[in-house]
């Protein structure tokens, strides 16, 4: 077997072995009534991390297109997900305020999923739709990361209780809109 065929076989095997892992990864969709408990944080704590807890959340999307009366139409779904096996906490450093802080990270992710949905709904796409949606997604993720960092900075990772409470009220109000 030639070197190129061996490399191709290895790539196919890796892809085949990886797909079930990715598909089996535990995910929790954002729901208005879902609230974290510490049991939701199932990941291994990194030895070198100075953080008390980490919420792994993200936005994913799917879309399809069709023609209607010579106009390009788009069906899309945008989801905010929490990844329990990539989220963790240090019990000795955490309390209910920390848990609420982590919940708001997930809630913020949902707010940015909504922003992406709104932008997709308002965009007039061209035939280059795949790239246009990818650009919207990347911009949304950048904005989400900046906002998450601002949240952590202003609340001092939940330690500044008055500011943490202000953020709770603001995020809860934004989710009700």
TrEMBL record:
Annotated signal sequence range: 1-24
Domain of life where this protein originates: Bacteria
Pfam families noted in UniProt: DUF922
Keywords from the UniProt entry: Signal
InterPro entries: DUF922
This protein's name: DUF922 domain-containing protein
């Amino acid at each position: 077997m030639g070197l190129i065929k061996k490399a191709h076989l290895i790539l196919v095997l890796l892809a085949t072995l990886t797909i079930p892992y990715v598909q089996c990864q535990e995910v929790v969709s954002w729901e208005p009534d879902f609230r974290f408990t510490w049991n939701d944080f199932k990941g291994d704590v990194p030895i070198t991390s100075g953080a008390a807890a980490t919420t792994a959340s993200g936005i994913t999307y799917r879309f399809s297109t069709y023609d209607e009366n010579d106009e390009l139409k788009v069906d899309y779904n945008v989801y905010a997900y929490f990844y329990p096996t990539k989220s963790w906490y240090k019990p000795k450093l955490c309390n209910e305020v920390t848990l609420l802080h982590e919940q708001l990270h997930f809630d913020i992710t949902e707010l940015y999923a909504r922003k992406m949905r709104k932008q997709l709904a308002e965009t007039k796409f061209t035939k280059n739709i795949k790239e246009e949606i990818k650009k919207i997604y990347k911009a949304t993720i950048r904005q989400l990361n900046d906002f998450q960092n601002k949240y952590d900075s202003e609340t001092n990772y939940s330690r500044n209780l008055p500011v943490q409470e202000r953020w709770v009220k603001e995020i809860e109000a934004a989710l009700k809109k």
